[in-house]
Amino acid sequence: MNDTQSIIIQLLREHGAMTHQQLSRRLGLSLMGINKCFATLKQAGLIEFVKSAQFGPGRPASSACLAPDAGYALGVSIKHLEVELALVNLQNKVLDFTRVPVAFWGEKKKSSDFVPLFAAINKMLKAVPPGKLRGIGMSISGTFDLDTGVITVANDFESVEQANAFRLQLERKYRAAVWLVHDTETGLISERWCNPSFPPRPTLLYVRDRLGFSLMLQGKLFRGSNVWMAWLGRVQAPQTPREAPGLLPGALAFSARVESWNDRLHGFAPGTRTAPSAEVERAEIEELFKRWDQEDPEVRKIVNRGLHKLALVIRNVCLILPFDRVILNGWTPGILTQAIAETSAVLQEGYVVHGAHVKDSNPPVSAAILGDRTDAVGAALWAFDQQLQTRIAQRGWKKNSSKDEDDEE
Predict the structure, then answer these.
(1) In the beta sheet, which residues pair with residue 133?
(2) Which residue, 46, 95, 158, 254, is most buried by CB atoms nearer than 10 A?
(3) What's the pLDDT score for residue 232?
């Protein structure tokens, strides 16, 4: 598949069905050139044709759309206490989702500890026809080289070596490229492709319960320089407290982490507690959430204070950049609802103070459209994005004219 064909596939993912004329105008190609691309893509089983609405006499027009079985991607999201898996097709539809309660860190792991994980992957991939697995997206908390894919910091693994070995094992076992994505970015990818209320290329701010902010500017992930990545909470400094790991806005926002709440609840100052085992941590998190639901005043005070500090950081980011929406994800439904309400209130307060100068500083705040499936699905969709990645701007990309927009409507 050449660059032009990749661009066409990506446009069909963004817009659904498109006519020959629409693609011709967007790409600056003749109708004959578009027809040649269509013929190749149809022969490869990637697209199919549907009849368009008939607005006058003459031959009915047809539109191209992606075939339901054009391709599949597997998403693997490495969490602190579990692994989430998702299967997605090229139409951005979620076909399967599951979670496996296995942690890579903690006690020394044996190969038998991961048998349930690979059994779940094998079961999920039985639905994929031979040769149709286009890639695997692997979501991690940590840092990695964007060019080589080598993991340099792996928060939810026992070691960096274990993380890189697992990535290579996936690649060799399933004979598919494995694309890494940061766990703070998966929500943006899911929202872009799965939220029908957004334009094809939205500008979004995404914050999840493990924190670290991610930006999407006009449909593209914004990573920027190391200074920006540190400010967004994605570059970690060693030997720093758990609550404020050398990050901006981490020093303030990390008070909204569940681990921070449990530390405070058990009387530990930030950064002074030895990390508990996976079993103890699971039990503490369940107990904290239970006490929140029971309206325990101590838990409510700790959680609300953390969510308020997080909202202040989100407000400051929104004063810098205009977003279509702020997306929050994680915690429990009750805490997430409180986080959305608190963030909306703080944004409104900031708008009252700064609105005359920063008119776009009060975007809507909502939960992730896919909820707890967000990370694994986003990882799978990222695999498609990376496979289809092209330099569209260098290949005659044309901006939408008003006529194009009318046609799409």
Answers:
(1) 72
(2) 254
(3) 63
Helix (H, G, I), strand (E, B) or coil at 292: helix
- Tell me: domain 199-368, CATH 1.10.580.10, correct? no
Q: What token pair was written down for 151?
A: 């993991």
Query: pLDDT for 184-216, tens place per residue?
Result: 889 999 999 999 888 888 999 998 887 777 889
Q: What would the DSSP string read from start to end of 345-361?
A: HHHHHHHHHHTTT-TT-
User: In which residue are the tokens 């369940």 written?
Assistant: 286
Using a 10 angstrom Cβ sphere, with 0-12 exposed, 13-18 middle and 19 or more buried, the burial of residue 237 is exposed
Specify the long-range contacts of residues 36-45, CB closer than 8 Å, at least 24 apart.
37/4, 37/5, 37/8, 38/8, 38/64, 40/5, 41/1, 41/5, 41/8, 41/9, 44/1, 45/69, 45/70
H/E segment holding residue 315:
helix 297-320
The label of the residue with tokens 């060019």 reads 147
Tell me which of 5 and 293 has the higher pLDDT.
Answer: 293
- Residues 156-169 pLDDT 10s: 888 899 899 999 99
* CA angle centred on 183, ends 392 and 217, rounded to 5°: 35
| CATH level 3 topology of 3-67 | Arc Repressor Mutant, subunit A (1.10.10)
pTM of the predicted structure, to 2 decimals: 0.79
Helices (H), 147-277: 160-174, 186-194, 226-231, 250-253, 258-265
Buried-exposed string 133-162: b where 16+ CB fall within 10 A, e elsewhere: bbbbbbbbbbbbeeeebebebbebbeebee
- SS3 percent helix, strand, coil of the chain, rounded to 5, is 45, 20, 35
Q: What is the pLDDT of residue 271?
A: 66
The residues of the chain that CATH labels 3.30.420.40 are 72-187+373-387, 199-368
Residue 222's identity, in one-letter code, is: F
Q: Is 175 left (phi over 0), alpha (psi -120 to 50) or beta?
A: left
* Strand pairing class (94-100; 83-89): antiparallel
Any idea what DSSP says for residue 184? Answer: T
pLDDT in tens, 83-116: 999 999 999 999 999 999 988 877 667 777 788 9
∠ CA(381), CA(44), CA(15), 5° rounding? 45
User: Residue 311: pLDDT above 60?
Assistant: yes
